[in-house]
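Supplementary Note 3. Input sequence used for the single-chain structure prediction.
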Amino acid sequence: MSDEVIGLFVIMVIAVTVYKLVELKHRGRGGSDAFEHQHAAELADRDDRANALEERVRVLEKIVTDTHSSHALSQEIEKLKK
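The predicted structure, written as discrete structure tokens, is reproduced below.
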């Protein structure tokens, strides 16, 4: 009986090893998954930076278009820098 268990165990190890080798081989060919993931991350980072810059422009437009005295404008700019 233990010979049968050992035989089944060996067959399972071989099957898993073959599966992993085939999986690695296909991953190497279609390496676009990693590229697409990296590309998507870079696009998301770019979008975040663009949104932050748009918000900064809105704030600057508000500062410029509001009717503040030059002293109040200087104080608001300093407050926004912090």
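The chain has a mean pLDDT of 81. Residues 46 and 63 are 26 Å apart (CA to CA).
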